[in-house]
Amino acid sequence: MGKGKIQRRLRYGLFLLLFIMLSTALYQPVSASSEERRAQNVLVLHSYQKGFAWTDDQGAGIEEQLKGAANPPVIYTEYMDWKRFPSNDNLEHFYQMIKFKYQALHIDAIIVTDDAAMNFAIKYRKEILNDAPIVFSGINQLGVDSIADKRNITGVIEKIDPTETIRMALKINPSLRKVYIVFDNSESGLSTGKMVSEQILSLERGLQVFPMNSLSNEQIIDQVSTLSSDSMVLMTTYYSDTTGRITEFDRFSSELSESSSVPVYHIYDFSLNHGAFGGNLISGKIQGQTAASLALQILEGENAGEIPIVSDSAVRKVFDYKELQHFNVSLKQLPEGSEVINKPFSFYQSYKKLVLSIVAAFAVLLAFILILLFYVQLVKRIRSNLEKSNERFSLAAYGADAVIWDVDMTTMIYYFSDSWYELLGYERDEADESHGGWRTLIHPEDAEHENRLRTEHLQGKSSYYYCEYRMQSKSGEYKWFQARGKVLRNADGGFVRFSGSMVDVTDRKGYESKLQMSYQELESTYEELTALQDELLEQYNKVVENQALLQTSEEKYRLLAYNDVLSGLPNRLSLSEELQKFIKEHAGGHAALFFLDIDNFKYINDTMGHTFGDELLVKVGERLLGLSDGRSKYFRFGGDEFVILFENIKGSDEVISYAQALVQGFKEPFQLNASVVHISTSIGIAQYPENGINAEELLKNADIAMYKAKEAGKGTYVLYGQAMQQHFDERMIIEKHLRNAISNNELSLHYQPLVDTASGGIWGFEALIRWNSPVLGFVSPLSFIKIAEDCRLIVPIGEWVLRAACRFIKELHTEGYEGYHISVNISVIQLMLDDFTDMVLGILKETGLPPEYLELEITESIFMESFEAISSKLESLKERGIGIALDDFGTGYSSLSYLKQLPITTLKIDKSFIDSIDTPNNMSLARSIVTIGHDMGLKVTAEGVETREQLAFLERTSCDKIQGYFISRPIPEKDVASWVEGRRAG
């Protein structure tokens, strides 16, 4: 082997050795680095439940801070739910759960919120949590002082100090002298109340402190609603009242703020958006962020026991803009550095730098544009003058109600503006007018005269062309026109253009003709003045009358535009202008807008005819004018709606007094020819400026209040309140989702059994509708049935219910349950439809159900609304074997003479009579109803039977059928068959 070859092998071996050594050296640091980068685990223990605002705020702050770290740890979160379940069983369950879940997991730090979690962590961290360092949040100074062993513990103290809030309140209201403190009688509530009271008194500002822990929720709300302006309310934590009733903090806080006559300050910021006026508020989120920052220090290697406890970093000076507006507090009155929430968005304030930058750039751009404009100014000026000239010409022509005509003298093509076609009724080019065909429309007696005047002007014999002549319209009628024009010549005197205007003077000619005839008669009469003086005076009066016609014709258009043709009252346009005028001229004044709607007017139109309805509307207008006190203006808004503007009011008492007078005034019947009509009106009232500062707002809010009056029973009045808007919005939401309920298969039927008392067997079922909305959840029929009737959705819903119920009972028959009947409730809206009878019979034919197995339930009030229109339809259905049940008997008019006229087969005794049969009077009344029904040949059904005693009584009185919870609650359709089988087996 050569020497060179040996050297190469030595170099190769040395290189391989160095590579192995380098790889070994590099391997260890990599492993160590990997160990150092092991994910760190942080366990967050909350004392209370998820969804509790204070806990959620702290949790959000903790997670936000930890997840924003350079090396975010893994976060594990658990809830003790100690506020709702403060028991040893809960503690034991929580202990076992933590022990099981985290026995194989290394916990690097524990963050606890509030006392229960901190006590748990201190007690068990050695046993089950790796003796990890603890960081607390939401613990007050007393809780920190109670920690026996503070080793390896740090955190954020929840420092309750209302003094800064009091100073802020004094700055806003220097006359403040009384502080009403809201806290409960729990151990923490009492200690907080005592601490807050002592700190306020320590300010030595002459303030009186009034604790409210001895009052119930209702008493607190009543008291704060009457507080004087030198008072404030300070709310701490509050979860139960003096009766021990548990209270939702958010709901009670909102109710307290709505009722309070003075600002409601708070201690904690989770009350924001729930009625809190503001203050120096303790922030759960800030506490959580601070605690998480301390935990990150621990994860970076610091010892928890050596990190100072934080005590003054978890508050924020914050106010609610809506509450400031409510109590007329301006932003200038707030302490410097205050935060304001719910403030309306201001693009300028939010993007000030951007706006200024854009303005600067725009200024530079504008400078360049101005330079360019300098060079095109002459062109623009000429174009502008031309456009203005055209605008003046167009406006003048439109304002003069004139026809513009033009002739190109080189081509002899005529042009007429649109008004010419509108006046004469021709389509464009129908009369070949552009080629001179218009001349054939001139009256033969006027054609020669027109041609002569035109020729004279073209020959230069007149300075302008003027002529009056008649033209035949498409309908054959002749209209008088006054034509003017002038010819344009070129420098050589040749014709260029001949243009002018035409005005319809038919009315004027008519008046002139009448006037001329009157003058002729006057001349004839003058000759016989001595003998015919009276006749001369009569002719003179005719002249005056004809002159008045000229003035009347000018005013009639305004009268038609601003007044209702039927009632003669000012119309909606007049109302809008009157409202705008009042608001403009009385900026500091007060007024009220009354929105009146005649109750059940549609039924009057349907039963008595539209002519009768129109006469009634005229009488209503006259009645309103008769109730005027000199400060009211009356308008017909449209249909059966009237509006009253009540100006220069001094207070709500005047408004209420006038509303009562209106309601009382409509109790007097209306005499229309041979008929006497009794009506009522529902009145909604909106006040200016409290309920709106413009016409649109006032009308909308008065309309909402009017609908509220109708819901309250009609024939009454309601003043608009802020809660009505929410109710109106909720009503609109329900109506919106209800429109798709059938198509989305959200409706279902439950069936409540009816039992024959004589045999004990099942007679049938009553169909009851249920609505499960994917958005709103289960909606009570009490909530949506009335809305469905108001918006007429009850028509398709009612048809769906009838079809589904008939199909269901027919399927029961097919499955072997023969003889069962079905009872279905019917709305008055359905009954008023012309095709109601055909609809019912059509569904019976479609489903194959014999008529004798169907019973329709009608309430007593339905008959009273339109007896004649409804009775004939029900009589027709009854003749075909369909049962008619009078539901809720005894709660309405219940006149025996009236009852005999009703086409019914069954009386249903209302539940209210069954509930109270334990008293002798009601027992006799219920027995009498059964007797009356049997004497009239009717079956009697009792609703709401819930006890064995009620059943025994009804059996003794020979009541035919019963239904109620004693028999069964309403049963879902899928469970009916199994319920029947179970009853048979029982």
From TrEMBL:
SMART domains: EAL (SM00052), GGDEF (SM00267), PAC (SM00086), PAS (SM00091). Keywords: Coiled coil, Membrane, Transmembrane, Transmembrane helix. Residues 731-984 form the EAL domain. SUPFAM superfamilies: EAL domain-like, Nucleotide cyclase, PYP-like sensor domain (PAS domain). It holds the Pfam family EAL. Residues 512-546 form a coiled coil. Residues 389-461 form the PAS domain. Residues 589-722 form the GGDEF domain. The chain crosses the membrane at residues 354-376. The keyword Transmembrane applies. InterPro entries: ABC_transpt-TYRBP-like, Biofilm_reg_signaling, EAL_dom, EAL_sf, GGDEF_dom, Nucleotide_cyclase, PAC, PAS. Residues 465-517 form the PAC domain. This is Diguanylate cyclase.
